Amino acid sequence: MSIRVRLNRLEDYSLKVPCREACPVHTDAGSYVRAIARGRYEEGYRLARNPNPLASVCARVCAAPCEDKCRRGTIDSPITIRALKRFVCEKHEASFPPEFHPPRPEDRAALSHYKVAVIGAGPAGMACADTLLDWGYPVTLFEATEMVGGALWQFIPEYRLPRSVLDLETRALLEKGLDLRLEVPLNDKVTLSSLREQGYKAFFLACGAARGLDLAIEGRDADGIFRAVDYLLNVNRGYRVDLGKKVVAIGGGSVAVDVARTALRPAYREGAEVFPSTEEGLTGLDAARSALRGGAESVTMVSLESLEDLPAARSQQGKEELAEALDEGVKLEAGFGPKRILVENGKVVGVEFLQVDRLFDEEGRFHPSFKPGTESTLEADAVILAIGQSPELSFLKEEDAIELTSRGTIKVDPVTMATTAPGIFAGGDVAFGPRIIIDAVANGKRAANSIDKFLRGVSMRECRNVVVEELNPDIFRRDPHYDVINRETPPLESSDRRIGATEVERVYDEYTASNQALRCLDCYVHTIYDPELCILCGRCTNTCPTRCITFVSADLLESDHESTRDFLAAKSVIDKTALIKDDDLCIRCGLCAHVCPTNAMTLERFQVEEQILCNQEGTL
Question: Pick from 321, 387, 392: which is nearest to 161 by CA?
Fold first, then answer.
C-alpha cells in the first residue's frame, strides 16, 4: 500500500481559497464574508467592491462561480456568497465608490492627450471605462441605445435587476469624469476611422452579442415566433407582448428562465403599447418564465440537453433559479429537439419534437442527432427561440483590419484582449460569445491594462504577495454551531405580489446575514506542523472531528510532484512517522492546534495581496 502526498509551497496557499480563485476578478469573497460575520459591514463592502466596479449588479445577478467552487459545498452546501454581497452593498452602495481618489492633476494632465473610446456600455465596457478613469485617462463611452448597461438592462428583467442599481453605477462613472454618448451607434457615419480623426488613440470594442440565433426548420416564418433577446428587450422597454395562452420556449439556458418568469407577470404598466407577435424574437429558461408573467396559462421549456446537462442548472445559482421557475409553474421537457413548427393560416399552432439521440458527433463537435419515430407535439400560440446569440458587427469596415472568428466574434488575444488591429481591443460577448457578467467585467479590466501598456509603453506584470499571520489557538474561536448551520437562500417575494418590476429576491436581514456568514470555513487559515516539536502524543488526530489528519509510516509515502519526491528522497523515511492531512476535509475548527501541548501544530492565516507592476519601455 502507498499513500500519495504533496508538500505545500508558499504559492500553493492562494490556490486553497477556491472562491477567490474561481472569481475572474479575484474578489476576496472569504474576507468580506468573514467581515460580515463579525459585523464589520463597511469593511465587507470595501472588500467586495474594490476589485469589481459592478459589485451591486453582481450582487443580484452574477452566476457566482465562487459558490460553485466554495469548499463548504463539498461538506453540505456552498456559502451564499452572492446574497451576502448584496447585503453589504445595500447597506453602503449609496456611498460608493470606496477608496476612490481622483487622479492627481499632474497624472490627469500627463494622460490628457491619450483619448480612449469605449464602444458599448455593457459590463465589459463599463469595467474598462471605470479602470481607465481611475488612472486619469479621458474616456468616452459610446452606446447605441438609450441607457447604460447593455445586456444588463436589455435582457435581464427588472424584477431581478432594478434599473435604480444601473443608475447608481452610471452615476459613479459620470462622477469620475466619463464622457457618455448615448444613442450613438457605430455606422457609416460614425466609424473607427472617424473617431481616430477626432483624436482617439485607443479603442475597446464591447458591443455585446444582441442578435438572437435562428432555427432553419419548417414553419419558422409563421406569425407568433419570437427570438428571446427581442422579446426581453421590448418587455424591458415597456411594451406588452401578446403571447397567447400556450407558450413553448425552445432552449435550455438561463435567459430562458428570465423570459418565462417575465411573461408570468401582469403587464409592466397599464396601457403599455402592444409589441406585435409578428416581430422576430427570444433565450431558453428566461423565455418560459416571461411567458407566464405575460398572462400565458401554460409555458413549456424544451431543451436539447438532458436534465443533468441543462445549461441553466450548471451552477448553484442556476439550480436555484430553475427551481424557482418550476415552482412558478414553468414546465420542462428535457432531451428533445424541434423538427418543425406547425402552422395554420400563417399562425403557429404547435411544435413537433424528436427525442435527442446524442448532441455531439464522434469528433466531439456539437451536432445533434435524433431518434427516428419519436415524434411528439406541443400545442403553442407562441414559440420563443432561446438558442443563443451572436454579435452584430456590420459597423466594421475593411480598412479597420479587424479579423473575425469562424463563430462571427472578434478575434482577440485572450490574455491582452488585443484584436488584429493595433490599438483596438475587444472583450465580453463580442469577442467570446455569451458568457457570465463577471467574465465580461474581467475582460474590461484586462483590456484597460493592455490599453495603458499600449499608450504609455509599459509592460504589466501581476504580482501576488502572501502575508502570513500566526494565530493564537487560545483566542481563535469558531461559532459553536458554524459547522451545522444550513444554507439559507434569500427570502422571496410572495407570488401574489410579483407584479411588474417588483423584485423577487429580497435582501437578508442582519441576523440571517451574520448566521450565513458564520458558515464560511475560513480557507485562508491553515494548520502548520513542526515535526521538531512533535512528541507523537496523538492529541491532534484524536481531536479532529473530520479525521483529516492522521499519522502514518513515512515509508508509505509517494508523490507525483518532483519537489515532494526530492524531499522524501533526501530524508531517511525508514522507521519514521509522518503526519498527513486531507485539506479538503478540514473545517478550520482549530482544535488540533488548541490541544497540542508543544505548539507543534499552529494556526496561520495566509492573506494574498495582488499588485500590478509596470516596467517602463518607452512612450509612443
Answer: 321
* Res 616 pLDDT > 60: no
Cβ-count burial 443-479 (b if 16+ within 10 Å, e if not)? bbbbbbbbbbbbbbebeeeeeeeeeeeeeebeebebe
Terminus-to-terminus CA distance in the chain, angstroms?
Answer: 63
What is the rounded CA–CA span in Å between residue 286 and residue 306? 18
Side-chain half-sphere CA neighbours of 239 within 13 A: 16
Please tell me the pTM assigned to this model: 0.89
The number of CA neighbours under 13 Å toward the Cβ of 560 is 1
In angstroms, the Cα distances linking 110 to 130, 135, 241, 582 are 18, 11, 52, 53
- DSSP E strands in 251-372: the ranges are 274-275, 298-303, 331-334, 336-344, 347-360, 366-370
Residue 66, phi then psi, degrees to nearest 5: -60, -40
**Residue 159 — very low, low, confident or very high, per pLDDT cuts 50/70/90?**
confident
Residue pair 449/129 in contact by the 8 Å Cβ criterion: no
Of 444, 454, 449, which is closest to residue 119 (Cα–Cα)? 444
**Cell reading at 99:** 477608496
Residue with cell 400563417: 346
Contacts of 221 (CB under 8 A, 6+ apart): none
Give me the pLDDT at residue 498, please. 63
Asked if residues 20 and 608 have their Cβ atoms less than 8 Å apart, the reply is: yes
Provide the pLDDT confidence category of residue 272 given band limits of 50, 70 and 90.
very low
* Other beta carbons within 10 Å of 64: 28
Specify the range with the lowest mean pLDDT, choosing from 105-114, 153-162, 325-334, 557-566.
105-114
25-to-164, 571, 610 alpha-carbon distances in Å = 24, 41, 11
List the grid coordinates of 489.
Answer: 437562500
**How many other C-beta atoms lie within 10 A of the C-beta of residue 599?**
11
Amino acid identity, residue 387? I
- Pairing of the two strands 525-529 and 557-558: unpaired
CA 498 to the chain's CA centroid: 25
Tell me how far apart the alpha carbons of residues 539 and 550 are, in angstroms, rounded to a whole number.
10
Reduced to 3 states (helix: H, G, I; strand: E, B; else coil), residue 236 is: helix
Q: Does residue 522 contact residue 35 with C-beta atoms inside 8 Å?
A: no
User: Side by side, which strands form the sheet with 246-250?
Assistant: 225-227, 382-385, 246-250, 298-303, 331-334
What local confidence, expressed as pLDDT, does residue 94 receive? Answer: 57
Cα 274-275-276 angle, rounded to 5 deg:
105
C-alpha–C-alpha distance, residues 545 and 97, integer Å:
43
Question: What pairs with residue 424 in β-bridges?
Answer: 203
Residue closest to 141 by CA, chosen among 187, 182, 190, 186: 182
Question: Is 268:404 a contact under the CB 8 Å cutoff?
Answer: no
Query: What is the distance between the alpha carbons of residues 619 and 523, in angstroms, rounded to a whole number?
Result: 43
Residue 462's φ and ψ, nearest 5 degrees, are -80, 135
Q: In this structure, are residues 116 and 200 in contact, taking their beta carbons and an 8 Å threshold?
A: yes
> Whose CA is closest to 152, among 394, 441, 386?
441
